[in-house]
Amino acid sequence: MSGLLVSKNLQDREIVLERELIGSVDAVWRCWTTAADLEAWWGPEGWATTVRSLDVRPGGLWHFGMGPTGAPPEVWIRAVYSEVITGSALSYVEGFSDETGADLDPESHAVTVEFIGLEAGRTRLVLRTRFTSVDRLEQIAAMGMVEGWSGGFDRLEHLLRSMR
Amino acid sequence: MIQTLSALAEPNRLAIVEFLREGPQSVTDIVGRLGLSQPLVSKHLKVLSEVEIVHRRVDGKRRIYRLEQARFAELDRWLDSFADLWDERLDRLQAHLSGTDASS
């Protein structure tokens, strides 16, 4: 029971997720803004994340790849920060990319992460994702992200294993 | 699912859907509630029917529309799966924060 709160706004194509974590705001912030920490938890399960660039300031680039553990990244993502309020909020526009960090996605989606400190070393994370268009949703669905990391990517991983 | 979202992206169509959440309505009722012309309402209802967001029933001279639940269940499942993937990711964040080696 993780206590995830989900609210969906169809009109704005926005989904808001909220969850409380055990950890100080500083620690949670660090996990989002330090390459080594991001690589440790970003996942998905069974996959490794490789951070190429992490320039946490407005206009700065966050470029990373994801691929099955032990194999080169297969999916590259680039995000450009639009707002950075240290220890409090991160906004970025995220889209598909390649190894060079090129912007290959005309329909990036906007993500805002709020870090709210609670008493006794707890932090509430509020994640807002707003999709620019329905085409965008279709594209993400096609990548298997929508089926859930543990769905699409696990199947892919099993497939890759069986091919070895 | 994509068609569902496209159809709902138009504010008047979304308003029709919101109204139908109160229960089945005739075209006349919908025209009265939205303050739009009947041809325009009919046009929106046609789009909503085509993607099976609404279901039409003819009752004498009246056309009664109600929501087609299956479409909304589909959209809801899609958004739930998006939430699930984030929930799993945040499980790993929590494990990392707690200093376990589960995610290292």
Q: SSE string of chain A, helix = H, strand = E?
A: EEHHEEEEEEHH
**Share of helix among residues of chain A?**
10-25%
CATH class of chain B: Mainly Alpha
| Structural class label of chain B | alpha+beta
Mean pLDDT of chain B: 83
Indicate the proportion of strand residues of chain B.
5-15%
Estimate the global geometry of chain B from the Cα principal axes. elongated
The geometry of chain A reads as globular
Task: Record the SSE blueprint.
The complex is a heterodimer of chains A (164) and B (104).
Chain A: E1 5-9, E2 14-22, H1 25-33, H2 35-41, E3 47-54, E4 61-68, E5 75-85, E6 89-97, E7 109-118, E8 122-130, H3 134-142, H4 149-163
Antiparallel strand pairs in A: 1-2, 2-8, 3-4, 4-5, 5-6, 6-7, 7-8
Helix pairs in contact in A: 1-2
Chain B: H1 2-8, H2 11-20, E1 25-26, H3 27-34, H4 38-50, E2 54-59, E3 62-67, H5 69-97
Antiparallel strand pairs in B: 1-3, 2-3
Explained architecture:
Chain A is α+β, with helices and mostly antiparallel strands. Chain A has one domain: START domain (Alpha-D-Glucose-1,6-Bisphosphate, Chain A, domain 4), CATH 3.30.530. Helices cover 24% and strands 42% of the residues of chain A. Chain A contains four helices and eight strands; from the N terminus they run ββααββββββαα. An eight-stranded antiparallel beta sheet of chain A has the order 1-2-8-7-6-5-4-3. In chain A, strand 3 and strand 4 form a beta hairpin. In chain A, helix 1 packs across helix 2 (35-41). In chain A, 22% of the residues are buried. Chain B has a three-stranded antiparallel beta sheet. Chain B has one domain: Winged helix-like DNA-binding domain superfamily/Winged helix DNA-binding domain (Arc Repressor Mutant, subunit A, Orthogonal Bundle), CATH 1.10.10.10. In chain B, 64% of the residues lie in helices and 13% in strands. Classes of the chains: A alpha+beta (164), B alpha+beta (104). The A-B interface holds A 2, 4, 6, 8, 10-11, 13, 15, 17, 19, 21-23, 27-28, 31, 37, 40-45, 125, 127, 129, 134-135, 137-138, 141, 145-151 and B 1-2, 5-6, 8-9, 11, 14, 75-76, 78-98, 103-104.
